Every structure is written in structure tokens, then in C-alpha cells.
Amino acid sequence: ALLKSLVADNPVQTANASKLERLLDQRKDVMTRSLALYHDHGLQAYQADSSYALAREQDAEVDTLAATMIGHEQQLLAQRQGSSDATVASSRLLTLAAIALCLGMLGFALFLILREQRQRLSSERRVTRANVELAHSLAESRRLGDTLRQLSNLGHMLQGCRSLALGKLLGSPDLPLNHS
Question: In the chain, helix, strand, coil percent, each to 5?
Fold first, then answer.
């Protein structure tokens, strides 16, 4: 019964298992009769009985059927192994393809990161140049502002000198002349 349940998915092996079960039942019956004959009448009576020759024939049939079943199972095992090997090969191929795809994606991501970093560094250099130019422009603006203040002060001083000089020429040293 256990053998039948193990080969239940294969009709050929199920039929062989049923046949083997019948052969083994017959062999048990012959063995039971042979043992009873041996106990009752001895070894010579057992060897002289026709069941002695029948036992050898039954053993040969059981061996042949068992060899047939084992051969069939080995063929099925070889087929399953071939199928399993094919599945393993395709799994390996898919795994390698997935790895290649992942490496490609990582490479593309690295390319994008490096491109972004180059753009960021370029932007930082432009900002640094702009800051330097701004600092120079600011320094130039301060210098020009200082120059304008100095010129304005000089202009006031010259105006004061002119007013003083005109005032002395006209005789009134305390009165500044505002001629606009």
C-alpha cells in the first residue's frame, strides 16, 4: 500500500505495484505452506514438493518486476534531473542578467551623480568667481567713493579758498561769496 501511494502519480508504476503486491502475497502463501511442510516432514519433503520450484520462479518474477520498476524510476529521475538542470541553468542565466541589469543601473546612477557633481562644482566655481568679482567691484566702489569724498572735500576747500580770496580782494574777509 505504501509503494502504491509513492507511485500514485504514474499509472505504469501503479500497475506494476499492484502486480508486485499480488506476487508478494502469492509468495507469502507459498512460503507459509513450505514452512509448514518443512516443520511437519523435514527438508527432503520440502525440496521434493512442487512449491520449492515455484518459490524460485516467484522470486525471479519479483526480482524482474522490481528491476523493471527501479529502471522506470531511474528513467523518471533522469528526466526530472534534466528538467531540474535546465531550470537551474535558466535561473543562473536570469540571475546573471539581473546582476548585469543592476550593474548597468548602478553605472547609470553613478554617471548621473558624477554629472551632477561636475555641474555643482562648476556652479561653485562660477559663484566663487562672482564673489571675487563682487569683492573687487565693492573695493573699487569704496575706492571711488573715497576718491569722490576727497574730491568733494577738496572742492569745498577750494570754494572756501576762493571765497576767502574774493573776500580779501573785495575788502570783506568775513563774508563768503556764494556765487552759484
Answer: 90, 0, 10
Banded pLDDT at 180 (limits 50, 70, 90): very low
Taking only the tens place, the pLDDT of each residue in 104-130 is 999 999 999 999 999 999 999 999 999
Contacts of 72 (CB under 8 A, 6+ apart): 10, 12, 13, 16
DSSP string, the chain: -HHHHHTTT-HHHHHHHHHHHHHHHHHHHHHHHHHHHHHHH-HHHHHHSHHHHHHHHHHHHHHHHHHHHHHHHHHHHHHHHHHHHHHHHHHHHHHHHHHHHHHHHHHHHHHHHHHHHHHHHHHHHHHHHHHHHHHHHHHHHHHHHHHHHHHHHHHHHHHHHHHHHHHHHHT-TT------
Cell 573785495 sits on residue: 170
- Round to whole Å and give the CA distance between 20 and 28: 12
Residue range 38-85, pLDDT digits in tens: 888 887 877 787 777 777 888 888 889 889 888 988 988 898 899 999
